[in-house]
Every structure is written in C-alpha cells, then in structure tokens.
Design a protein that fits this description.
The complex is a heterodimer of chains A (448) and B (431). With 448 residues, chain A is an alpha/beta fold. In chain A, helix 2 crosses helix 4 and helix 13 crosses helix 14. The longest helix of chain A has 25 residues. Chain B is of the alpha/beta class. In chain B, helix 8 crosses helix 10. Chain B is globular, with a radius of gyration of 25 Å. At the A-B interface, helix 2 of A face helix 11 of B.
C-alpha cells in the first residue's frame, strides 16, 4: 500500500469527474419546464434562501425566453449558476415542489436553473450595471460567494466595493471546495469573471489581519464587509495526524479543483473520518480518483449522520463503505507513513452523557490514507484582531436583517456567520449586508 | 355482447369507426392494413383530376408536453392516376366485402364532370360516395372544395347533379368555414343528399417561424392557409354536428358522420351522443397508426356493457335533449366549490384563478408554514374555474346549494317580471 498519484487514465478520470447532472438539451429543458404547474406564491420560491422566482423563470424557459429566465435567476442570486449545481435542491426548492403531493418526481429546478444560467454566462449577457455613484466605498474581505455577492449588490446600488482576497484566486469554496463533479473549476472561474464585470476590483494575495488590520480598513473605507468563511478543518486531536497520508478534507479536495486530476494523490485504502456532506465529497472523490477501498467512520449511527440523504446514496452507489459507532483513537504509522486507523466501537451514553466506549473493541483499520472531515474551524485569530467583535461559539454575531456586527461599520455574512452552510445562504447574506450597508451609509450621511 | 354494427343509410358497417378521406386512405395497401386492424369503414382519399402536391405539407400545434394538439395541412386531393385508384377501390371492396367503403369525390363544377366521376366510381362496387365540399385550401382556389361548400346554392346544385346518376348513397362533407353550417346542410339535403359528414378542416395558420418569418409549413420560405384538424378542433366539430342534428328547419333527417379530433372511444361516443351514426378519424391515425382502433372498439363495448346498451341505436342522439337554449337553463340552480384539504397540494392555482379572473371567492391563509386555501361559499358563484385549473383530480368539487328552490329559467323569469309577480334578482356582490 502506498500513497501515489492516481493511476487511472485521463479518460477515466474525466469520466469520473464529469458533471453528475449534465446540462439539459433544449428539448429536455422544454419537456421538464412543461411539467411545472406554475404555482402561485410557490413553495419552491419560499424554500429558496435567495427567493428566486422559480415558476417565473421556468415559464420563461417554456416560452423560449432563456435569457429572460437567466435574468430572473441572477436578479435574485448572482451565483445562480453555482447554486444550480451545488444547492441541496432536494431539501430546498425541489423538496418543496408540490408535485411530491401527487407522488410525482419534483420539477428538476436545479437543472433548469443551470440550463438558463449557462445560456447567459456563455453568451456573457450582462443584465446589471453599476448604480449612480454615491461617493462611498466599502472594503469586502473575502472573494467567496458571500463577499462577491455583497460587492455585486453594493456596486448595483452605487457604492464602490473593493475586495481583499487572501489567496490568488476568487470564488472561495465555489472554486476550490465543492466536489468537482458538481461544480467544475472552469465554470466557477468563469462565473466569478461574469460577476466581476459589473466593476469589482479584487486585491489578490492580500490577507486581512496582522499586516492589514480590519481597523485600518474601517478607517479607510466607509464600511467593511467580513466574508472570510472558515479556516482549516478541525483537528482530530489524536496521535498520528502528522504522518504522511493524513489529510484534512479541504487540502484533499482542493487539488481536484485547482490542479490536474492526473496529479492528485490518493491512497489505495482510504478512511474518511466524519459523515457530513464534506466527508461524502472526500469519500466519493477518493473513489473516483481510483482508491480501491474507501471507508467512512462515524462515531454515531446512520440516522444521526449530518450528510443529506441523497449524498449518502451517492456515496453508497460509488462503493463507499460506512462504519457506524466507530471512534478513531490513533492514526497508526509505519516509516512515517499512515498504515492504519485505530478505533474503538462506541455506544450512545445515557441522555446528555458522552458516548461510551465498548470494552475490548479496539481494532485497527488498515489504510494508507486518512482524511479528517470534521467541519472547518473559525478564523479565531482574525476575530481576535477586531476589538469589540462579538462572537458566539463559532459564529460572528450579526443582526440578521442588516448583517451588522457588534462593531459599527463592520458587517458580515457567509460561513463565518452561520458556521458553514450552503453557497446560496452565503449569497443571500451578502445581499442582505449590502442593503444593510447602504442603509448604514445613508444614516451616517444624515447624521453627519 | 354489445353490437357495434351500424346501418348508415343502407351501408352496413361492423362498427362505427371509419377512416376519414385523408392521407391514411390513399391506397389499397393502407386501407387493407386498416381493415385488418379492425376499422369498420373507410372513405377513400378524394379522387378527381390528379394534382401535384408541394413539400412540406403539414404543421402542428404542440401544447406543453403534448405533441400535435392540432394538425394543419396544405396537401391536396389524390395525386395518383384515377385509373389506379378505381382499380384499387374495386380490389379492396372484393377483398373486404363486409367493411364499408365510400369514395370521396371532387371534380370541376360541371354536370358532365360529376356524372362521369360518379358512374366510373360506382363501377368499382363501392358502397357509397362522399362529395368533398369542404377542402379549404388549394382546390377551393380552383372553384372546388369549400368554394362549393360555402355557397348553399352551389352545394345544392352539385348534389342534385350527382343524385341524377348515383345509385349508391350520397353523403355530402361540409366545411366548418362558414358562419352557420346549418344553411349548407339544409341545401345539401334539399339537393338530395342521403347523409352528411362534418367537419372538414378549419382554415388556419398554425404558427410562424420567428427566424424566417414564414408560417409553417413552409414551402421555400412561403406558406399558405391550411386546414386544421386534430384534438384541438373537437369541441368545434361536436358543436356543428349537434347543430345539424338538432336543426328543426332541415328538410329531412339524414344520418350524420362525425369528424373532428376523434382520438378515442369516448370521443366517438360523444359524437354519437349528439347525433352521429358513424365517426371518421384521420389525425389520430396519422399520429399513432391504424392500431388505435382496437382500443376504440373495446372501449366502446365496455362502456355500452356498463350502461346496458346492446346496440349503438340505444345511444345515438341521446344527448340532444340535454342541449337547449340558454334561456331554458335554471337560474335557481346554485353550486359552490369545495376544496378537499386532504388532497390539496397547495399550488395556489385555484386561488389566483379566482382572485384575478373570477369572483375573489377563495381565501388564502398562511398556516404552519403552508398556504391554506378555502372557498368563501357566500361569494362563490359556482363558475367551475377553480375546479378546472386544479391539478389534483377530485380535490375541488362543486356542491349543490340550490336547497330545494323550484327551477326558474330566464324565459320564465322574464315572463314573471313582466307580469309583476317577481322582484328583479340581485347580482352577487362584487369587490
């Protein structure tokens, strides 16, 4: 057993990482659009965090006004293209579709949305222009979906936004973190460019924190939006995490998004720790890179698994195995390399009590790669540099109606506020904060 | 076992399902396939002086996921030599003596031409003739087809010429492209027609290509008005058959052959309930093939058995007494809509239809994160619209609220008003 670049052919890799749900052909889109009942006060729209007028855009597709459909979507959600691919539609719009009540398959809203947004992005149809300048400027920290959504909305409203991005690329997890067979990188980069065309400057490789404190931005700008997302995946806190072959989830996923698939490293036997949606992304990516055996270990049972049901189904169909009620104790090494994961079986304790280890259940799962997918830690170090910033648990506290933090002039949204959620939530929070910022700037002006 | 056979002015047919004079009856090969599949009769595609056709010839209206809701054509009568047609007709009649075989005719409007074609056609041994006074495109420009069928005097005149020599029953096929089809029907009967068939196709432009600006079907970038048929025209055809069947000014009662959008046994039954003895089908066969007749036969048999009918005579015309003038309808009959909350899927279509198009009689409330829709009975006028748009079968039903009020028609109401025996009825409150 050893860790090495995938041995699959380029052709096989391309097939394994191709879109799970390919773009509809025009005929497929028309057939699907015709199924929509065009509900009034539609549950799908109510279920969408960005409140996309779903029946309207589907009817526009049916009426062969695909550009109009794209405009409807992007007016509510400028990252409608990524959301069409990455949204957990099964629990949002499609989960709310009234056709469930008729025992029919819900309208495939995500795929119709992709059809419309692809049409717009490929033709670079720009629907939005910068608003009349208000002579105000805002610094946006983080070029992920929350930050860019906020910057786009601000620009539309006539407020100049400058984005500070720590990395050399924009798009955040859209570009680097979502499974490649959901959102391909080329698309994510093109979408960022589409969003930026309204006129959003981005300062790349410019981390905010130590050298460039938020306080300075608050002085130089009329307001600041914090859309930094989260940091590293939480540590397991067990021995052996330093061994070669022990990864954290995002470090494993990122090369599949930013590098060449043929150069991605994968073990023959891979163990993924955790059972959230990111763990599923890791496990399926490992299988698709050619791992012979991929096992998810989770300390609780299938019923408690945080991953969505359809993600679980996807992993099972990819041949991923699941070990429930299994708690990792130590990454076992040999010659500095991962050789196994030592675990115990656990059972639920009494109510409110921790899990109980089952005596004599210590065992080792042989593997050459261990990936921890326990969710990301917040950027506590950054928060500590912002005096007066209220943080509760892992979340920056905001007023949900405006995005305002406890620091005057500082607004926030996205994963740093909700602890890690969907792209669509980040987009909406960015939008809300932009409007909150405008309100704040107007009140400042009135007061000043 | 219900008996589906019919006697259509002396022409016997094992069932009422005939193929209309159209592309499916263009040749012996096709008609033989049709009779083998179970069709009771066929009207041979119109013969006359051979013509030349264009390409393309058909266009359709698709509605949502349903293809060919309506079909339009600019094809003309047969393009095959008359002798070939006549030889094949004779051959088919010999091979299928029990099936009804009529031949559609169209020639120039001279007595000699009609006498000649009638005699030569009847020499084949066919069971009857259908005079094509209906074709709305191409032939009409040459003074034939609907050019004849739109002028009562012409229709009467040519029917008379035909009847001078015909020995088999003569059926006149009527065009719907007139303001009142009964005038032409009466004229044909006056001229001696033994039967009437209707409707021929309706003048149409099915749609326009928004890139080329040419209507469909396009012939080198141009098109022409065509003849519309298929499921979309059925309500129009049913209305016209009923009008003719119930026409009190008709000189004589003659058997009717119903045509227009018939796809299934139930469509056929509906035409027969308003007075048709046989029905003719074209579009459904062009869409799905001759095989559909098996389901039509079985469906009609099952329905007749269920209703206790042994013969088609038991129900032909049965709905005519149910169709009356508006002035005879009961003003005191009152129904209101009721929504079955257990079946409701909360799509809101009933609400918005009522709110914007009708009488604002449905209340919308947000309950436990779901939209809840309830009819306001005091405001509901019983128009049916919510029930029509509801996608769940049986979810919205109309409940009788007449409460034992005696019937009173508009005509009776007018009389009572004039006599001062009743106060004017108040309209329902509007917003």
């Amino acid at each position: 057993m050893s860790l090495q670049p995938t041995r699959l052919s380029a052709e096989q890799l391309a097939q394994n990482f191709a879109d799970l749900a390919p773009r509809y052909t025009p005929n497929e889109a028309l057939l699907e659009a015709a199924r929509c009942l065009f509900c009034y006060d539609a549950p799908c729209t109510r279920a969408c965090p960005t409140a996309i007028d779903v029946p309207k855009f589907i009817r526009q597709i049916l009426e062969r006004n695909v550009a109009g459909a794209g405009r409807t979507i992007l007016s509510a959600n400028i990252f409608g293209g990524t959301c069409a691919r990455a949204c957990p539609t099964e629990v949002l719009c499609e989960g709310a579709c009234v056709l469930h009540g008729l025992n029919e398959k819900p309208i495939q809203i995500g795929r119709l949305q992709r059809y419309a947004t692809d049409h717009v992005l490929e033709r670079n149809l720009q629907f939005f222009t910068a608003g009349k300048p208000l002579d105000k400027k805002v610094a946006v920290i983080g070029a992920g979906p929350a930050g860019l959504s906020c910057a786009h909305e601000l620009t539309k409203l006539g407020v100049a936004a400058v984005v500070y991005e720590a990395r050399e690329f924009a798009g955040g997890l859209n570009t680097s973190g979502i499974a490649a067979y959901k959102v391909n990188t080329e698309f994510a980069r093109a979408e960022v460019e589409y969003v930026r065309q309204i006129g959003i400057p981005i300062r790349f490789n410019t981390p905010v924190g130590k050298d460039l404190p938020v306080s300075r931005l608050l002085q130089e700008y009329d307001a600041v939006f914090l859309g930094t997302g989260l940091g590293k995946t939480a540590s397991l806190g067990i021995a052996g995490e330093e061994l070669t072959g022990a990864f954290e989830a995002l470090d494993f996923i990122m090369p599949t998004r930013l590098g060449a698939l043929a150069e991605c490293v994968v073990g023959e036997k891979v163990v993924v720790i955790g059972a959230g949606n990111t763990a599923i992304d890791v496990a399926t990516a490992a299988r698709r890179l050619g791992a012979e055996q991929v096992t998810i270990v989770y300390r609780r049972g299938a019923a408690e698994m945080p991953a969505f049901a359809y993600e679980y189904e996807l992993a099972k169909s990819d041949g991923v195995q699941f070990l429930w009620h299994t708690l990792p104790k130590r990454v076992v090494g040999a010659h500095g390399q991962v050789a196994g994961l030592e675990c115990v079986k656990v059972q639920p304790g009494a109510k409110g009590q921790p899990l109980q280890e089952i005596p004599d259940s210590l065992h080792t799962i042989a593997c050459d790669m261990v990936v921890a997918a326990l969710g990301q830690d917040p950027l506590y170090e950054l928060y500590q540099t912002i005096p007066g910033l209220k943080v509760e648990g892992k979340r920056v506290v905001i007023d949900p109606a405006t995005g305002a933090t406890s620091v005057p002039g500082l607004f926030a949204g996205g994963d740093c506020v909700n602890g890690g959620s969907e792209v669509v939530d980040a987009v909406e929070m960015g939008k809300i904060a932009a409007r909150g910022i405008l309100q704040y700037l107007n009140s400042e002006r009135a007061a000043g | 076992m219900p008996d589906l056979s019919i006697d259509f002015c002396g022409i016997k047919s094992p069932n009422p399902f005939w193929l209309a004079s159209a592309p499916p009856t263009n040749s012996a090969y096709q008609v033989a396939r049709a009779f083998d599949a179970g069709w009771g009769g066929a009207v041979w595609k119109t013969i006359g002086e051979p013509i030349v056709n264009v390409s393309s010839r058909y266009s359709a209206v698709h509605y949502a996921n349903q293809r060919v809701m309506g079909l339009n054509n600019i094809e003309l009568i047969t393009d095959r030599p008359l002798a070939d047609n006549l030889r094949e007709i004779a051959d088919i009649k010999k091979r299928y003596p029990k099936n009804a075989l009529l031949v559609s005719l169209m020639v120039e409007s001279t007595r000699a031409a009609w006498h000649d074609i009638v005699k030569r056609t009847e020499d084949t041994g066919c069971d009857g003739l259908e005079l094509n006074f209906g074709c709305p495109h191409g032939m009409s420009e040459r003074g034939m087809g609907s050019a004849v069928g739109q002028v009562p005097e012409y229709a009467c005149q040519i029917t008379e010429w035909v009847k001078e020599v015909a020995t088999t029953p003569v059926m006149v096929k009527l065009t719907p492209n007139v303001t009142d089809i009964r005038y032409i029907a009466r004229a044909a009967v006056r001229g001696g027609a033994d039967a009437l068939s209707m409707i021929n196709t309706i003048n149409s432009i099915t749609g326009i290509d928004l890139d080329t600006f040419a209507p469909r079907p396009a012939v080198r970038g141009q098109s022409s008005h065509g003849g519309y048929c298929g499921p979309a025209v059925k309500p129009i055809a049913l209305n016209m058959v009923q009008q003719v069947a119930a026409d009190e000014q008709s000189p004589r009662r003659v058997p009717l052959s119903g045509i227009g959008g018939i796809q299934s046994w139930s469509d056929a039954v509906e035409f027969m309930l308003v007075g048709a003895t046989s029905v003719q089908v074209c579009t459904a066969v062009m869409h799905y093939g001759f095989r559909i007749v098996a389901g039509m036969i079985e469906g009609m048999e099952n329905w007749m058995r269920e209703k206790g009918f042994t013969s088609t005579r038991d129900f032909i015309g049965k709905s005519l007494e149910r169709i009356t003038d508006w002035g005879n309808l009961d003003l005191n009959y009152a129904i209101t809509a009721q929504i079955d909350q257990k079946l409701c899927i909360h799509c809101g279509l009933c609400y918005i239809a009522c709110e914007d198009g009708c009488h604002q009689s449905i209340r919308l409330e947000r309950r436990n994160g779901t939209n809840h829709y309830e009819v306001i009975p005091e405001k509901c006028v019983g128009c049916n619209m919510c029930m029509l748009v509801c996608p769940v079968e049986g979810c919205i039903t109309m409940q009788d609220q007449s409460g034992g009020k005696p019937a009173m028609s508009w005509n009776q109401y007018q009389k009572l008003l004039a006599e001062g025996k009743i106060a004017p009825l108040q309209p329902p409150a509007h917003v």
